[in-house]
Structure formats: C-alpha cells, structure tokens
Specification:
The structure holds three protein chains of three kinds. Helices cover 15% and strands 46% of the residues of chain A. By secondary structure, chain A is an alpha+beta fold. Chain A folds into two domains: 32 residues; 234 residues, Clam (outer membrane lipoprotein receptor (LolB), chain A), CATH 2.50.20.10. Chain B folds into two domains: 189 residues, no CATH class; 209 residues, no CATH class. In chain B, α1 crosses α13, α2 packs antiparallel against α14 and α13 runs antiparallel to α14. In chain B, 44% of the residues are buried. By secondary structure, chain C is α/β, with parallel strands linked by helices. Chain C has one domain: P-loop containing nucleotide triphosphate hydrolases (Rossmann fold). Chain C has seven helices and eleven strands. In chain C, α4 packs across α5 and α5 runs parallel beside α6. The chains are: A alpha+beta, B alpha+beta, C alpha/beta. Chains in contact: A-B, B-C. The interface between A and B is large, with 49 and 42 residues.
C-alpha cells in the first residue's frame, strides 16, 4: 500500500513518546505530532493517493427544501509534479445533464457540453456562486497549499451533534493559487478524521463551512462518505455530497486534456 | 451716394422691406437660439463626462482594451509613486485640479436574505476626491443643479451607492425608498420529487456581520481576486441612484477605493486600475496628455492615457449629432433668407426698370447698376441680421430665466435647461456674417438681371 | 441741302440702317439714312408713328447702335464702341430729357440735378456750385429739397432740364418733352430750353408731335417709313 511508508514514521514518533525519549525539540505533550503531519494525514483520509474513481450524489437544499439533485462520476489522479489532484467529473444524473463533463485541474475548471461539443473555461469570477464554488471545497489540498499551525485541542460537535475530541488547526495560504486565504479545521485526534472545516476569504469573512461524516472503509482507509457544505454567504444554501462506489482505476493522464473530453463524454 | 440711394430705395417700399428684414431676423433668432442650445448641450455633456471620469485617466497599457476580462491582471503597481510623479510635474501641477486612484472590477452582488444575486460592475473612488470631481463646472452649466454628496463616506469605507435597477432586483426598494417599485413576484420554488429535509448541522460557529449597522441595507459582494480566489465583502448601501442608461442602472455599484482594493486584490499587493485626472480647464487636455506620455516614457513606465471622450464614446456621438442638426438648421435658414431676398430684390428690379434705363442712359455703367442692387441686399441683410442676432440673444437670456428643465439622453433625472449665452460671441458674429453674406449673394442674381437690361427696352417699360 | 463739314455737324448719318427682331419678326426701323445734324441748333425729327423716329433718336442718343452704316456723334463713331465705352461716352457728351420726366423718385430735386456730376466724378465743391447754379438757372433754387412727387409737371421738367444741362453736354436729346404738359407750361419749357441752349451752346435734338415745339425748329427732319423724307432748315437768327 502506498500509504504504508508514512505509518512507520508516525508509529516511530509515537513509539518514541511512549518510550519517553524526546528526540524532537518540542517540549509540549503530543508535540511530536506536528501540524503538517496532522494535515497530511487528514488529506489522506479524504482522498486516496492512488488514482481512483468514485460516484457522488449532490443534493442542494434551499431554505431547508431539496432544490436540486445531481449525480456525478469522478475520476481522480494526483499530479506528482504539482502535488495537486486532477479530477474529471462526469454527470450521470439528471438525464438532461448526462454526458456533461467538468475538468478540474489545479486552479482551472473546464466545462464540456456534448450537445454543443464545446469546452469552455469557467473563470474564477464565474465560480463565485453556485455548485462551481463548492468545487474548491471538495478538492482542497491542505498539505500542499497551506501552512498549518496547531491552535490547541478542542471538543467539538460533529455533523450529528456528537462531541469529538479534535485538534483545532489554523491554516494560512502558502501558495499564490490557494483558493482560500485561511482555513480552520478540526481533525479528530486518534483517527485523523476531518470533522469540520471553515473556509475564509481574503477579507476575513467565512465563505463555507464543511462537515465530514459517515466514515466507512473504502480503498484502504476510512473515508467520509458524506460531506455537508454550508454556504456562509448565502445562508439558505446547504449542499450534501454523498460518495459511493470507490474503486481504484488506471486513470490516464490523457483523460485530463481538453481534446479528450468529447470522446470521454460519449462513454 | 450709392449708399444713400440704396437706403432710400429700401425705405421706399417700407412694408416689403420690413417683411424681408423680419424674415432674415427670424432666421437669425432661430439659428442663435438653437446654436446656443447646442452649445449648452455640448457643455453639459462635457461637464457630465468630466465630473464622472475626469479629463484623463492613466491606465496600465492594455487595460482599456482587455481589462474588463481581467482587471487584476492590468493593475498599476506603485500607483502612489506615479501619482506623486504626475502631481509634482511643474507643467502639470498648475493645470491639475484632482488626481485620484480608482479600481474597476466586476463580480456578483447579492441580497442573500432573499436569496437573490446578480452580476455587477463596480468602481472604487476616494470619497473626498469623488466629491470634488463632481463639483467641476468650468462652463457654468451645472450651477442650478441640486448638489448631492457622492454617497461614499470618508469615515466608513463600506458605504456605497448602487443603480436603481440593481437595488430593485435585490429587493432594496423599501429600505432605499425607491418610488414606483412594482411588487416582487413570488419566487418559483422547485422541490425535487424525493423531498427530504436538509441535514441539521450546527451552524452557530459561522460568524455573522456585526449588527451595528442593522438599519442600513446591506449587500454582499463576491469577486475573484487576482489569484482567482473567491472574496466576499459587505456593502452598506447609502442610496440608489438612477444611472441614465438601463444597462448601467442594473449593474453599477459605486464604492470607496479602499473597499474595492480589498475586494479585488485580497491578500495580494494593493494596486489601482486607473489614475483619474481632472483639470481646471478642458482646453489644457491635449497639453497635459502629451506631457503625461512624455513623462511615462522618460521613466520607462508601461502606462497609457485615455481621455473622457474615449472612456465615454457617447459624448462624441451626441456632440456630433447635435452639431450636424445645427448645421442642417442653419442651412435651411440660410436657404429661406436666400429665397426671400431674391424674391424681394427681383420685384424691386422689375418695378424700377424705367429708372434703371434712365440711369443707364445718363451714363451709369452696368456694374454700377449691379452694385446698387447688391448693396441693397447687403443692407437688408445687415439690418435683418443685427435685429435677429440681438433679438436672439435677448430671447435666450429671457429663456434662461424661465427655469425650464429637461431630461437629456443619457441622464437619469431632469436638469435645468438653458442656452449658452456666455462666450457666444463667436456664434453671434458667425450668424451675423452668414446672414449678410446670404442676403448679398441672394441679391446678385436680380442685380445681374438689372445690369443686363437693354437701355432701350428699359426706357420703354412703364 | 448743303453738305456740312464734320466740324459743323454734331451728328452724321452715313447710310445707317437699324434692323431688330420683334418676336421672330425682322423689323427694319431705319433704312439707309444719310444726313447731318448741324451743331448748336434746335433740330427736330418729325414723322408719323412707325416712321422710325424713336429709333433714330435712340441712335442719336447712343443708347442704341446701327446694324449697318456709320453713325458719328460728336465726331465719334458710335458703332466702334463697346457697351462700357459707349456708356462713358454718353456720360460725358449726351443728356436726355424725357416725356415722362424720369426723375429719380428717391432723390430730391437737388440730388437729381447733381446725379450726372457724380457719375462723372466731379468733386464736391464744384458739384455743389454747378448744381445750385443750374437750379437757379431753371428758376427752382428754392425747390432743391423737394422730392419729385412734390413738384408739378412743369417743375419736374425744369429739374429734368437742369439735370441734363448741369454737365454741359454737347448734345441734348428730348423725346416729346412737352407731351405731358399743358400748352402754357409747354411754352415755358420751350423758352427755358432755348435759354439754356444758348447759355451752354448745346445742340438739341427733339422728337415731337407738338406743333408749338415744331414751330421753334431750326432744322426739321421728316421721316417716313424709316427714311428721310424731307429736310427743312430755318435761317439762323
């Protein structure tokens, strides 16, 4: 398993603590677990490292009522050189949208419509509202784009209003292309499951609030099967993203090229 | 002597001469009034434009043509330095009234309490500078207008002004006291077949904006920063202002410069997308523009300069249209004067045929006859023109006191309607000369006819 | 008829003819006349209407030119001059007195008399002197400021005579000068013309029906059908 190389290091540092030997310079309890470690682990919980596909069911609620339902098939692969995931998303439901594609590559988003056979780039200005704005929430890569700092430990209510024991981390944008200026995230201590995240704009206002729940094993680890995104600007909007059918897949790099989109759409 | 004869002949048929004179005078009055009206319109259009976008704007090269798609990509870095450079230039400083940085951007603005949003075009101004700019009035055409503040506040950067259409769409009719707002149609809710309630997740941790300004209508502005990150800021709307053109009315947001900067540049370097210059006098525009371009080239700055006519092409089109209409009317009036004088002089020639014969017999040359009649035409023209121009100017002054108003194209509300009586010397002189020339030319044809009469036939005429 | 030398003749006709077009019809007004009019006389051209006397007078007055032959007025061949030269010639040498007086209604009596001097470019002081003298000579010195419509027929003709003579012309043409006047006034006018003729040594050529005027003729030329029918001369007195 590709994740295994990390385990020895964590176990090793855990072991050192248990042994009472302090090889690190931190003097606090649990100081051997660095913010970066936590964040990396949390990333790994959300996204498998190896190329995979999964199905997503997006239900959009407006003022508490179901407003729209979308079915997607997602093919994902980590781009080793940039450290960012590339996602090819295909609409599977409703019937009128079947075959439409969205390509998410780093910071860019492309949309392809089989009816017009045209692919257009969705600019950042066009991704300010609507489901396109949730794309950044789902694909956020904390370890790569943000520098983390542990604020402390907290008992926080999860999506089901159960109390969890978490690390409360503060993350600030480390790269120029990071979509959010700042994040706050609560990671469960033992399991490294992300419980909750708050996404901040450059002006300091909260843009999104995300909860992660229904952890089930898939593709070698526990993953949140449900992500609930609350829009902090338009507070009437809540999106529930349900994942299923995780499968390892030999995702080709060529799939993520614009020219391949028409062919992919037909499959 | 000729003059004496010409004068007396004009007075000979007093009524006919008076009618001709009146026709010329009326033509003169019409051209003077309309000419001064056109002058007023041009001055007003210029004043509106200059109040809004100043005389010249400094942009990063390429912004004017491509910036709308990527405003953050065409910013002026070190805009404060550039401002200082321009302000301190010895040639520009005495001519400069205001120089101020601005930011133009676009994004989505919404009233999310009622779940409505739309795109917007925003501009950020420094409040004090904006107010100063809106008081520019070189030609004195804005004197009687009701002055408003800019809607921005120096002490509160979150304050702004929106177009009436935009306010209406975003449900601010009531709080902004907008008149004539039709009732909002009920939004169509689309409920899916398998309706389920939204997940009940705890949301107390989302910070809400301080309720300190709860009585002021608030809108949320979303924009993408230079890096493509979504950014959101609040706008507290002071009022809704009609914009004149519907497309602007539905999209315009005016905010403070600081707010626009924060929204567009986010965590990146704070720049400006334009530097607006307003001069004391419009006639200095070309000189200052040349100086700016020289200055930028000397310092190797990748900046360009655009004037208000380029930024508001409507100005040139409107001015051109009014000029064309004026020329057309002047031409028509000229034609009327021409025909009237031709008619009058022609009749005169026929009536005086035997006199012409007598004079010719006595030794008056053909050219002498011609000169006499042309002179009569000129004198009629001169008197008619003087009467017309003087009356026109008096009527114009009286009209200005009458307090009429109108809503010009591109304007949102009625403004005082005036005609430009000041500095009209050129127009008045031109009209006077034009009418006299017209009358003189008109007299030539009948004068030639008179000159070419055969003496024998003329003497035989009763 | 004793042929006169050129110095004695003010007007010399040498086979002069005048043909003109009257609405497509060619009319021969004067056919091949040859005669001289002596200077400083009262010469009268008489004849029935249609005899061509008006045309002949027009030719003498240099307001028309012959279509054939040669006409000399005051020694000048009138056919050789263009319109402008002819006009200038008239200005200096020929004056007119008309049946209808033909005064300029917009000018005063004084200004009417002054007019020919203005055409000649005479200076202000001399003009004034001569005009006043002329007014005086015709006995209307006090009427200088009156407009023609304020004068009687006789007075108007006097002014016309003054206007004609003020420039000291060699030749004065009078076309029916007494036709619009009663007998008494007519006699006065004839007397006045005699007087000024003597004073200015001018040659008068008349065209007339008036027997009273004809009785004063020094020379009478009778025209018939465009030709000279008869010439009678009175011994100079």
């Amino acid at each position: 398993m590709i994740r295994t190389p990390r385990i020895p290091r964590r176990t090793f540092s855990m072991g050192l603590l248990a042994a009472g030997l302090s090889l690190s310079v931190h003097t606090r309890a649990d100081n051997a677990v660095s913010a970066k470690d936590i964040v990396t682990a949390a990333d790994g919980v959300r996204n498998p490292l190896a190329p995979f596909r999964m199905s997503l069911l997006l239900v959009e609620y407006k003022s508490g009522q179901v407003h729209d339902t979308v079915g997607l098939a997602v093919h994902s692969k980590l781009n080793a050189s940039t450290g960012q995931y590339r996602n090819l998303v295909r609409y599977t439901a409703p019937a009128r949208d079947v075959g439409k594609l969205v390509l998410l590559d780093g910071g860019s988003m492309w949309f392809y419509d089989p009816a017009s056979k045209a692919s257009i780039r969705i600019s950042a200005q066009q991704r300010l509202i609507g489901q396109a704005s949730n794309g950044d929430v789902l694909t956020v890569n904390l370890a790569h784009d943000y520098s983390a700092k542990i604020l402390g430990e907290e008992a926080v209510a999860d999506a089901d209003r159960q109390t969890r024991s978490t690390w409360h981390l503060d993350l600030t944008a480390a790269t120029r292309d990071a979509a959010y200026a700042r994040l706050e995230t609560w990671i469960e201590k033992d399991t490294y499951h992300p419980i909750k995240s708050k996404f901040y704009s450059d002006s300091g206002r909260v843009l999104k609030l995300a909860y992660y729940r229904r952890y089930e094993t898939a593709l070698g680890g526990a993953r949140p099967m449900e992500t609930i995104i609350v829009d902090a600007v338009d507070s009437h909007l809540v999106t529930k993203v349900t994942a299923s059918e995780y499968r390892a897949e030999d995702v080709q790099d060529t799939w993520f090229q614009r020219d391949s989109l028409p062919r992919f759409s037909e499959e | 002597m000729f003059l004496k004869i010409a004068f007396r002949n004009i007075l000979r048929n007093g009524r006919r001469s008076l009618m001709t004179l009146l026709a010329i005078a009326v033509g003169g009055v019409a051209i003077v009034l309309f000419g001064e009206f056109v002058g007023f319109v041009q001055a007003s259009l210029e004043t509106n434009a200059v109040q809004n976008v100043g005389h010249l704007t400094v942009f990063r090269r390429g912004f004017f043509d491509y910036g709308a798609g990527d405003p953050a990509g065409f910013g002026i870095a070190n805009y404060e330095e550039v401002t200082g450079l321009v302000e301190n230039d010895p040639e520009i400083r005495p001519l400069l009234d205001v120089i101020t940085p601005t930011v133009s951007l676009s994004g989505v603005i919404g009233n999310f309490e009622i779940d409505t949003s739309k795109t917007f075009l925003g501009t950020g101004y420094v409040p004090a500078d904006r107010e100063k700019m809106q008081r520019w009035d070189e030609h004195g055409v804005a004197q009687r207008r009701v002055l408003q503040d800019s809607g921005l506040r120096a002490d509160d950067e979150s304050r702004g002004v929106v177009g009436v259409g935009l306010a209406r769409v975003l449900g601010l009719c009531a709080p902004l006291h907008i008149a004539d707002c039709p009732p909002r149609p009920a939004p169509t809710t689309w409920v899916a077949a398998n309706a389920g309630a939204a997940p009940d997740v705890p949301r107390e941790s989302i910070d809400t904006e301080a309720a300190a300004k709860a009585d002021i209508p608030r809108l949320d502005m979303l924009a993408a920063t230079a890096n493509g990150a979504p950014n959101v800021m609040s706008l507290y709307v002071t009022r809704a202002e009609p914009q004149g053109a519907r497309e602007l009315d539905d999209n315009v947001v005016v905010m403070s410069f600081a707010l626009a900067q924060k929204l567009l540049y986010g965590r990146g370097e704070r720049q400006a997308t334009g530097l607006v210059l307003q001069l004391h006098r419009t006639e200095d525009l070309t000189h200052v523009r040349g100086r700016l371009e020289a200055l930028f080239q000397a310092h190797g700055l990748d900046l360009e300069v655009r004037d208000f006519a380029e930024r508001q092409p409507f100005y040139r089109q409107a001015v051109g249209m009014f000029s064309a209409i004026f020329l057309f009317i002047a031409l028509i009036m000229g034609m009327i004067v021409l025909f009237t004088v031709v008619n009058t002089m022609g009749t005169s020639v026929v009536e005086r045929t035997s006199e012409i014969g007598t004079a010719r017999a006595m030794g008056l040359r053909r050219t002498g006859v011609r000169r006499l009649f042309v002179l009569e035409g000129s004198i009629l023209g001169a008197f008619g023109a003087t009467a017309g121009v003087a009356t026109g100017q008096i009527v114009a002054m009286a009209f200005n006191r009458a307090g009429a108003t109108w809503t010009p194209p591109g304007s949102a509300a009625p403004v005082p309607l005036e005609v430009l009586t000041a500095h009209a010397g050129g127009l008045l002189a031109g009209v006077w000369v034009g009418l006299v020339v017209m009358a003189t030319i008109a007299a030539v044809v009948p004068a030639n006819r008179a000159a070419r009469l055969q003496v024998v036939d003329a003497l035989r005429h009763v | 008829m004793t042929p006169l030398t050129n110095e004695d003749a003010v007007v010399s006709f040498h086979e002069v003819g005048k043909v003109y077009d009257d609405e497509g019809l060619r009319v021969t007004a004067v056919k091949n006349v040859s005669f001289d009019i002596p200077r400083k006389r009262f010469a009268m051209i008489v004849g029935p209407s249609g005899s061509g006397k008006t045309t002949l007078l027009n030719l003498v007055g240099c307001i028309d030119t012959p279509t054939s032959g040669r006409l000399e007025v005051c020694g000048q061949d009138t056919g050789a001059l263009d319109d402008r030269a002819l006009t200038d010639f008239r200005s200096k040498n020929v004056a007119f007195v008309f049946q209808g007086f033909n005064l300029f209604p917009v000018l005063t009596a004084y200004e009417n008399v002054e007019y020919p001097l203005l055409l000649l470019g005479v200076g202000g002081a001399e003009r004034r002197e001569r005009t006043l003298a002329m007014l005086d000579s015709v006995g209307l010195a006090d009427k200088g400021r009156h407009r023609p419509n304020q004068l009687s027929g006789g007075q108007k003709q006097r002014i016309a005579i003054a206007r004609a003579l003020v420039k000291n012309p060699a030749l004065v043409l009078a076309d029916e000068p007494t036709a619009n006047l009663d007998t008494h006034t007519g006699a006065e006018i004839i007397a006045l013309m005699r007087k000024v003729q003597r004073e200015h040594s001018a040659s008068f050529v008349f065209s007339t029906h008036d027997p009273q005027l004809m009785s004063h003729a020094d020379e009478t030329f009778v025209l018939r059908d465009g030709e000279l029918f008869d010439h009678r001369a009175r011994e100079a007195s």
